[in-house]
TrEMBL record:
It comes from the Bacteria. It comes from Paraburkholderia phenazinium. InterPro entries: DUF2442. Pfam families: DUF2442. This is DUF2442 domain-containing protein.
Length: 79
């Protein structure tokens, strides 16, 4: 599955990846220790690559592939 990231936001338990097609994928924050232990300000300071396939948090040196995140998900998991 391929998707284009347009935004990332967080709540107390999840990282939510908003996709260009209007869907959103929720990932347990516990899957990403660097993000889980980061401050809200550090989490909000991220970049999306030009091709919308990578997420990067410079202060945390955390880099995530959108394709890799979405690959194990099926169509029923995305909202």
């Amino acid at each position: 599955m391929k998707g284009a990231a347009v935004n990332v936001h967080f709540d107390a338990r999840f990282m939510v990846l908003d996709l260009a097609d209007g869907r959103a994928a929720h990932f347990p924050l516990s899957q990403f220790p660097a993000l889980a232990s980061a401050s809200p300000m550090e989490r909000e300071h991220f970049a999306i690559s030009i091709d919308k396939q990578r997420l990067y948090w410079p202060e945390l040196q955390q880099d995530l592939s959108v394709t890799a995140l979405l690959q194990p998900l099926d169509e029923n998991t995305l909202h």
